[in-house]
Amino acid sequence: MHVQLGEISTVVVSSAKMAKEILVTHHPCFANRPENLATRIIWYEQEDMGFSPYREYRKQMRKICMMELLSIKSVRSFRFIRQDEISKLVESDSVVFFCGRLQEVHCQMDEVLEDMITQHKANHEIGRKGNAESGDKDLIDLLLLQQQESGINHQIPITTRNIKGVILDIFTAGTDSSSVTTEWALSELMRHPEIMAKAQEEVRQGCKGKKTIEEVDIQNLKYLKMVIQETLRLHPPLPLIPRSSRENREVNGHMIPEKSRVLVNFWAIGRDPEYWDDPEKFKPERFEHKSVDYLGTQSEYIPFGTGKRMCPGVTFGLASVELFLAHLIYHFDWRFPNGMKPNDLDMDEGFGITAGRKTSLCLIGIPYHAYD
Ligand code: HEM
């Protein structure tokens, strides 16, 4: 589908076959991200990783992120932080909100990032002067280390703006997508009490007697994983995968001009009756005999995108959602307030970078002491 949005030629791709053409066959022609005011102001003139144009700097930064920050080994090494944060969450109420004008938001975030970097540099200095270094390295330590090695290991120097951009990528792309997915999964479980009962039974039996669920316990929770797979099919947090064309390109007989905005509509692909039986129904069992590798090899299932620009945070994202959801249904029985029924729950998406719920999910959590 072609839509002319003012001066911007926009192509929306809503079939698995065409998605493969755009994201794989004709990569790298469609490897750029669309530019706009928000990406320029907030993401340091796109000097980050997620929005930077497809050129040498981006390849280098992605390689560093994949090897040093988001590799299976790094994701595992941060498991204590995840568990600690989730334990704090199940013990407290928390509300997070974000608003405001672009420049104002940018300045506030920049100040926070600058403070974090200065603090880390000061800690390195103390470490160098002979005092003991405290604990393991976190994401900022790893990025600063890569910066020090610029010129030795990397062709393109890594600037402090690049580091800030990448931290911002990880905060924004990494936190919202995971929390949105967890919220949709809990919403679907509330709409389907029989599925909630099955998932809860699996978690409570599998982790019986434990005060805290650990990531190793998650490996055996097959049904929970299917619930998440089905949630990502029906409610991908990034329903429109944004790309932009770097040159004129003919794809399946259609000429797509240079600098067109190309949106791969995974929301529609995930509901395409050509691939999905009873597509609108939330049915985790459909994944019982369908192997999912999340690498985009089946173009009808690409919640993390595919090709060279696919999400580098798959392992991190899944680890967070699995642990978070498992804790929520292990430690609490959930009820609707005010006599609400499962079918009364509004399942519309709201407007935003990620497609979260239009209305907040308000539930009553009744603590369940599975470990007494
Ligand atoms: C449920 C969780 C998540 C989902 C569903 C998700 C989905 C996606 C999708 C669809 C894309 C676009 C891919 C493409 O253009 O082909 C993307 C890009 C990206 N994601 Fe994720 N993501 C998740 C979690 C994370 C996490 C935890 C991180 C980092 C810690 C992360 C970092 C990024 C970055 C940096 C990009 C841009 C990559 C690039 O342009 O090279 N994501 N994600």
Automatic annotation (TrEMBL):
Record: residues binding heme: 311
Pfam families: p450
Organism: Cinchona calisaya
PANTHER family per UniProt: CYTOCHROME P450 71AV8-LIKE, OS08G0105600 PROTEIN
UniProt keywords, alphabetically: Heme, Iron, Metal-binding, Monooxygenase, Oxidoreductase
Name of the featured protein: Cytochrome P450
UniProt-recorded Gene Ontology molecular function terms: metal ion binding; monooxygenase activity; oxidoreductase activity, acting on paired donors, with incorporation or reduction of molecular oxygen
Cofactor field: heme
Family: Belongs to the cytochrome P450 family.
PROSITE patterns associated with the record: CYTOCHROME_P450
SUPFAM superfamilies found in the cross-reference section: Cytochrome P450
Gene3D superfamilies: Cytochrome P450
